[in-house]
C-alpha cells in the first residue's frame, strides 16, 4: 500500500504490525443492519471483494460468519468487525471499518452497541419483501444513535423484486429522497461500487479528540486461548498504546495492555489506536465477563473520565434446565458450559437438581434462538447429549409478608397460600403484515393475551401492528404461527417493557402421584384446564406402557384438573390352563392383580426425552 498524505508510519513492534495509521479525516466507521435474510452478510462479502481485503483463495460465502451454524441458518449470531482500505475515485485511500451486527431480535443489545461504535449504517431492504418489522426496529436504533443511514435495496435481480414499491416504503420509513436509495444485487455484485462511494461521501469521519483522556467503547469481546479475553473497541477519545495500564468503568480491576491493533480476518498489531480507530485490545483479561459489551475503557488514574452512555448488564429473558442424558455426564456438561461461556458472556448457568432428570444446570438465555444455538453448540462442539426442560421466563412473586421473590424455575414457585401476587414480563411487539392478514393476526395475538396498542400503515399494502404481549406467549411457537398464518409474509420484533401482575397459577404434571418438576409451568388461570388436558393427552402418547397402570394428572395445588391413564401390559397367566375348575383361573388372576398393585406402589415411571418435545409441540397441526 503506497504512502499518501493520509498515512503516517508507526514504530515497528515485536508483533506483525500494519506499517500505517490512517488520519482521522479518512476513516469511515459503519455497520450493516437489516431484517433476517435480507442479504447483510452477502453484501459484506461483496465489499470485502471490491476492496481486495480478502484473498480470493480465502473467500467463501458469509466469510465474516465464523461458526458453521451461522452459515447453515443464514444468520449472524456473533457480531464481527473488519478493516478495509479503499481507493476512492479521487485517488485518496480511505479506511472503512465495517462493524457487522447480529441479525436476530435476541441480540438487539449487541446491535445497539455496534451502532454506537460508528457514524453511519447501511440499511438493507429486500426488494421482493419490502420493509419488515426488524427493518423498522433497526432503523429506529440507528436514528436514536444519530447515525447517517444509507438505504440500500437488495435482490433487485429476483423475478419477484418490486424496486419501485420497495423504494416507496423505504422513503416513507426514513423520510429520505428516492434518489438516495441505492438498488443493488449483493449476490451478483451489481452496483455494489455505488455503496462504497456512498460510504465515503455520506458518512462523516470520526470527531473524537486524540489529545483527550482515553475513552474506548467495547462493542464486542472474544476469548482467545493464549491471550485471554480480547476487547473489540471503538476509540472515541484519546489513544492507547501497548504497555498502557487500563481499567473498565464498570469495575476497578487494572490491566496492562500487551497488544493493540486492528481487525482483518485475524489480528493485525499496531503500536497505537487513536481517536476514531476501530480495533482490539489484548490485556490478558482472564474472564470474558470482565470485558462486557457496552463498557468503557479508560487509563488507570483517569477516574474522572465519564463512561460512554448506553451500558447496562444483559439479563436473561428465557430460562431452561439443561441436564446430561446420563448421570455420569454431569461433570463433562459443566466443563462444556464453562468453555462455552468464555465466548458467550450472555449465557448464565447455575447448578440445580430435578427429581425427574437428576443433576443439571438452570441456564439463562437472551431468547429462544439463543437457547437453540447453545444446545446445538453443546452437541456439535462438545459432543454432549443433553435433555432440556421446557423454556420459561422469570416471574416476580410478591409474598404475603410483602417481600418480592424472583422465580426462574416453576418448580420453585411458592405455594398459593404464601403468594399475594405474581407478575410476568411483558414486551412491546411490532408485527408487520400485509393488510389482508391484519384481522387474522389480531385475532391470533389477542388469543395470546395481547393488548392492542395501535396500527400504522407504512404503505397501502402493509400494516404495522403494535401489541403488548406476555413474553411467555412468544417463546414457544408464536413466530412459527405468525409465519404460517401470514404465508411467510409476517415479521416480528419486540422489546422488553415491564413486569405486570396477572392471574397466574402453577400447573404441575403428576405421574403416579409424583410431581415431575421438569414439566411444571406457570400459566394463566383461565387457560390452565385446556393446557393441563393437552399435556396429559400428549404424555399418554409418548410414555411407554409399564407392567402397572400409570396415572397422568395435571394439578393446581392439591386439585387435579385433568387425568389420563396408561393401561398396563398384561400377561395372559391363564393361557397354560386347559380346562379345570374356574377357581384355579381366579386364583392366578387374583395373584396377578396383587402383584400389579404392589408394583404400582413401588414402581418408578421413566419420563422419556420425547415427552419434553411433545409438550413443546402442543397446538401444532
Overall tally of structural domains: 5
Mean pLDDT: 81
Our estimate of the beta-strand percent is: 25-35%
Number of strands: 33
Number of helix segments? 13
Structural class: alpha+beta
Shape descriptor reads globular
CATH class of the largest domain: Alpha Beta
Distance between the amino and carboxyl termini: 61 Å
So, the CATH homologous superfamily of the largest domain? P-loop containing nucleotide triphosphate hydrolases
Largest sheet: 8 strands, antiparallel
Shape-level CATH architecture of the largest domain:
3-Layer(aba) Sandwich
Sheet with the most strands: spatial strand order: 13-12-18-9-10-17-14-15
Structural write-up:
This protein folds into 5 domains: 7-202, Rossmann fold (3-Layer(aba) Sandwich); 215-299, Beta Barrel (Elongation Factor Tu (Ef-tu), domain 3), CATH 2.40.30; 318-389, Elongation Factor G (Translational Gtpase), domain 3 (Alpha-Beta Plaits, 2-Layer Sandwich), CATH 3.30.70; 396-502, Alpha-Beta Plaits, CATH 3.30.70.240; 505-616, Alpha-Beta Plaits. Helices cover 24% and strands 34% of the residues. Helix 7 (330-342) packs across helix 8 and helix 11 (528-542) packs antiparallel against helix 13 (610-616). The longest helix is centred in the C-terminal third of the chain and has 21 residues, at 582-602.
Amino acid at each position: 500500500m503506497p504512502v499518501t498524505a493520509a498515512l503516517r508510519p508507526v514504530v515497528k513492534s515485536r508483533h506483525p504490525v500494519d506499517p500505517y495509521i490512517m488520519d482521522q479525516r479518512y476513516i469511515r466507521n459503519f455497520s450493516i443492519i437489516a431484517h433476517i435474510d435480507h442479504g447483510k452478510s452477502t453484501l459484506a462479502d461483496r465489499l470485502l471483494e471490491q476492496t481486495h481485503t480478502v484473498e480470493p483463495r480465502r473467500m467463501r460465502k458469509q466469510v465474516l460468519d465464523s461458526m458453521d451454524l451461522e452459515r447453515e441458518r443464514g444468520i449472524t449470531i456473533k457480531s464481527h468487525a473488519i478493516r478495509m482500505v479503499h481507493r476512492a475515485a479521487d485517488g485518496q485511500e480511505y479506511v472503512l471499518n465495517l462493524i457487522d451486527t447480529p441479525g436476530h431480535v435476541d441480540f438487539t443489545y449487541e446491535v445497539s452497541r455496534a451502532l454506537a461504535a460508528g457514524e453511519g449504517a447501511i440499511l438493507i431492504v429486500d426488494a421482493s419483501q419490502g420493509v419488515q418489522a426488524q427493518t423498522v426496529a433497526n432503523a429506529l436504533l440507528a436514528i436514536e444513535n444519530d447515525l447517517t443511514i444509507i438505504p440500500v435495496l437488495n435482490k433487485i435481480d429476483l423475478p419477484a423484486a418490486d424496486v419501485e414499491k420497495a423504494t416507496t416504503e423505504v422513503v416513507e420509513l426514513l423520510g429520505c429522497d428516492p434518489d438516495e436509495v441505492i438498488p443493488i444485487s449483493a449476490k451478483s455484485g451489481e452496483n455494489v461500487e455505488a455503496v462504497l462511494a456512498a460510504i465515503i461521501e455520506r458518512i462523516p469521519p470520526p470527531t473524537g479528540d486524540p489529545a483527550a483522556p482515553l475513552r474506548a467503547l467495547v462493542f464486542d469481546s472474544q476469548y482467545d486461548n493464549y491471550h485471554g479475553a480480547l476487547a473489540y473497541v471503538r476509540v472515541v477519545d484519546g489513544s492507547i498504546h501497548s504497555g498502557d495500564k487500563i481499567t473498565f468503568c464498570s469495575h476497578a480491576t487494572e490491566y496492562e495492555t500487551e497488544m493493540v491493533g486492528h481487525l482483518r480476518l485475524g489480528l493485525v498489531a499496531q503500536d497505537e489506536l487513536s481517536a476514531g480507530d476501530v480495533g482490539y485490545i489484548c490485556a490478558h483479561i482472564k474472564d470474558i465477563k470482565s470485558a462486557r459489551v457496552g463498557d468503557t475503557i479508560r487509563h488507570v488514574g483517569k477516574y474522572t473520565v465519564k463512561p460512554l452512555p448506553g451500558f447496562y448488564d444483559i439479563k436473561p429473558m428465557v430460562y431452561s434446565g439443561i441436564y446430561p442424558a446420563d448421570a455420569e455426564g454431569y461433570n463433562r456438561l459443566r466443563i462444556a458450559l464453562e468453555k462455552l461461556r468464555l465466548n458467550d458472556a450472555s449465557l448464565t448457568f447455575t447448578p440445580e437438581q430435578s427429581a425427574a432428570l437428576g443433576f443439571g444446570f438452570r441456564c439463562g438465555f437472551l431468547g429462544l434462538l439463543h437457547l437453540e444455538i447453545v444446545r446445538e453448540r453443546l452437541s456439535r462442539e462438545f459432543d454432549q447429549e443433553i435433555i432440556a426442560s421446557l423454556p420459561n421466563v422469570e416471574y416476580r412473586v410478591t409474598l404475603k409478608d410483602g417481600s418480592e421473590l424472583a422465580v426462574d424455575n416453576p418448580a420453585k414457585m411458592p405455594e398459593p397460600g404464601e403468594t399475594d401476587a405474581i407478575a410476568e414480563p411483558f414486551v412491546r411487539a411490532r408485527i408487520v403484515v400485509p393488510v389482508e392478514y391484519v384481522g387474522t393476526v389480531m385475532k391470533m395475538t389477542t388469543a395470546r393475551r395481547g393488548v392492542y396498542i395501535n396500527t400504522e400503515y407504512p404503505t397501502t399494502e402493509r400494516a404495522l401492528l403494535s401489541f403488548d404481549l406476555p413474553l411467555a406467549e412468544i417463546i414457544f411457537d408464536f413466530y412459527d404461527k405468525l409465519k404460517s398464518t401470514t404465508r411467510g409474509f409476517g415479521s416480528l420484533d419486540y422489546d422488553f417493557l415491564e413486569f405486570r401482575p396477572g392471574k397466574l397459577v402453577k400447573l404441575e404434571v403428576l405421574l403416579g402421584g409424583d410431581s415431575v418438576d421438569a414439566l411444571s409451568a406457570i400459566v394463566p388461570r383461565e387457560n390452565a384446564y385446556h393446557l393441563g388436558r393437552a399435556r396429559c393427552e400428549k404424555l399418554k402418547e409418548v410414555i411407554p406402557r409399564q407392567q402397572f397402570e400409570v396415572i397422568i394428572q395435571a394439578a393446581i395445588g392439591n386439585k387435579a384438573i385433568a387425568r389420563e391413564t396408561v393401561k398396563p401390559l398384561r400377561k395372559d397367566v391363564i393361557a397354560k390352563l386347559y380346562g379345570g375348575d374356574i377357581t384355579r383361573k381366579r386364583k392366578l388372576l387374583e395373584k396377578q392383580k396383587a402383584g400389579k398393585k404392589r408394583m404400582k406402589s413401588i414402581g418408578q415411571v421413566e419420563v422419556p426425552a420425547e415427552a419434553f418435545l411433545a409438550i413443546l409441540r402442543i397446538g401444532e397441526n
